[in-house]
Please model this.
Amino acid sequence: MTIRLIRALSQGRVFPSWLAVGALAAAMLPGCKKEGPPAPPAEESPAQGSSAAARPKPPGRLDRAPIARISPQAMKAYRLDSCYFGTAGLLLAREAYRKSLGTATPGPGKIPAFGDYEREPEEPAGADAGAPGADAGAKGANAGARDVDERLLPGRLGRGLRLPFTRHVRSCTIAKGLKQPPAGELDEVVQQYERFVTQLDQRLNEAKRYYADKRYETDQFEQGKKLHASLAEAFASLDAERDKLGAALDAWRAKAEPATDELSEGAKIAQRAVAGARSVVTALLVKKLDRKAAGELTDALAKTVAEVEAYRDAHPDDFYCKKVAPDLGALVAVAKKLQAKPAAAGLDAAQIYRLTSFFLNVVESNHIALARLVRGHSGGSPGDILRLRQPRVRPEMVTPHPGLPAERPAEGE
Model:
């Protein structure tokens, strides 16, 4: 009856009156109840409390996918390699900047350049063997070349594209924050070097954007001349800062404790080759190049790389040697080719950049392989990180990374 009365009143079929309102109130009053305060919770007996505490908790997300980490020593060595060898690109930027201006300052007809960072492609061994026609030969000569953004080439300065060594400057920042293991004097040198290269990198990228936007047309090169003064001062100190960091790194490596990561047999051989590659690159970076000593180190590295390749061929399931062998072989070829060129005063900036770029490929490959090896010891699998963040993701929805195993290990393995 109450519902009918309300519906009739809303449709205007019944005029409200005191009688109708009274009837409606009378119909609604029986449904109203006065509720008292909630009852206090029952006290838990000691027996109940002990049983609740003993009840097993559901496993957490991290319990389902334990993750191991690379040792602090190996992580610090990786970041220091990326910092020191990666920022060799500053040498190429300095050479290009100075060559484009000469003794003049920025002005009409004097726009500075910031370097051509396109690496010369390597021709793989045997590329011409059995390759019919000129097209096949040309294709083999370009094998291994990496795509280069045209905005980095001379005369094509991209506004939003940063210089390619900027990411290695960030490695210096990360290395500065790695306090374990303590390195004494090296930690202080890294802090000073990081502050220096960060400021220089910021000035270079600021100048690149300034000329890419052609702001010099509106301020008559006023900002360009200020940036030029700052860059010229930093360029004059670049060699001394790099020499200081290089000497501190050599001293630290000579007495540093070995990393505590558990290595497989293939990983031990590969890391021996990586250490040999670092020695070759360091020997080639000195200002007065000792070709005999560098040649002996390169020959020794070639033998170690042959061991890595032999182990890879004999153990197809060993991912470590499979990952680092190609980059090690490419570095050996580049080192031999650079030593064959006559140079009385060592390598120039472009050759240094090319050599360090190939070595950084070795460093990155070794780091990726080591991370995968460490995760394998902890029982991790390719999709574990994704499932930790998105627990509803099913294993069949995870696309493995090209460098990781395609199949998830069976439960209990």
About this structure: The two ends are 70 Å apart (CA to CA). The longest helix spans residues 222-255. Residues 60-65, 119-160, 382-389 have pLDDT under 50 and may be disordered.
